[in-house]
Amino acid sequence: MTDAAWETLSNQAVAACGVVYFLALLAHLVEWSSLRHVPVEGAAAARSASARSGSAEGGGVAVATGGPAETAVDPDRVRRTELFGRLGLLLTGIAVAVHAVALLGRGMAADPNRVPWGNMYEFTLSGTFVVALLYLVLHRRLGLAWMAPIVVGFVLALLMVAVLWLYDPVAPLTEALDSYWLVIHVVSAIIATGAFTLGGICSAIYLVKERWPGPTTGPLARIPAPAVLDRISYRIHSFGFPVWTFAVLITGPIWAHQAWSSYWNWDPKEVWAFITWVVYAAYLHARSTAGWKGRNAAILALVGLATLWFNFIGINYFSSTSQHSYASAPVVSEPAAGVAHSGGA
């Protein structure tokens, strides 16, 4: 295939995965809409009754205690709800696979071939891919089914932003970016960004669940208890922080010294990447030493996520001094200590 054909394939794959993500979002929204009529206890009882009845006609009605009064649950409604949930998960998996093809095509379109992390558009494609992939990997392990429409909606929205406002044609890397450190440094920053984003979603939902803890029907009833959300958020952040540390304090300075003969240049992206590291270090330290859990920990985690995404979006658009600003042109950035030059870390 020619470079132009690879670029066309990448663009078509981005459009295709966007469509599939949208269909997955619709499936999950239908699932959530159906959950309004299915109490948590009633859903479990309906599944048990359905299993006992086998192929009995009429479906029957399961009775469960979803509160002070008994609640009648239609097993057929429960099955339809579960069907849309499984359909949404399947469509999300297909979208992630097509998303991977888009990234592959983007890298193969360059001459010479390269990793697809050369500008803000490519970083956004890679970052959203990691968010969706991590969700699929952790879906069963951490019980993240309740997060599905949030993750899919978030990924779809960022893909739309990337296509409409961030797109750049494929271009060769600048001399400073053409280094094996591009792979080592940026991949760690992308993985950490995806993990922090998932952890931030858990923290935000924790605050919602803490505010309205009592529903027995609807999506909020399927979200785990606040203590469980707090624990999931902590586990995800505990994974992302050492990866971010590797990107910010090890590979970034080494690459900067290789390119600029200086480990630190006080570039705005360097500074904000370090601020993000400090906030997340404070979050983990406060939890492990002071027992700072719950609401305060969730707020601190969201502050860290805000600094992360401001570094990704704000610096590229609002800073006139950053050597990492390349939002309005093809690859013009260069590596800096402690930050992924491809826009997000």
Automatic annotation (TrEMBL):
Q: Which UniProt keywords apply?
A: Cytochrome c-type biogenesis, Membrane, Transmembrane, Transmembrane helix
Q: Where in the cell is it found?
A: Membrane
The segment(s) forming the Cytochrome c assembly protein domain are 117-319
Which domain of life, per UniProt?
Answer: Bacteria
Q: What is its main location?
A: membrane
Q: Which InterPro entries match?
A: Cyt_c_assembly, Cyt_c_biogenesis_CcsA, Cyt_c_biogenesis_CcsA/CcmC
Q: Where are the transmembrane segments?
A: 12-30, 87-108, 120-138, 145-167, 179-208, 239-258, 270-286, 298-318
Tell me how this protein sits in the membrane: Multi-pass membrane protein
- Alphabetized NCBIfam families for the sequence: cytochr_II_ccsB
Output this protein's name.
C-type cytochrome biogenesis protein CcsB
The organism named in the record is: Nocardioides koreensis
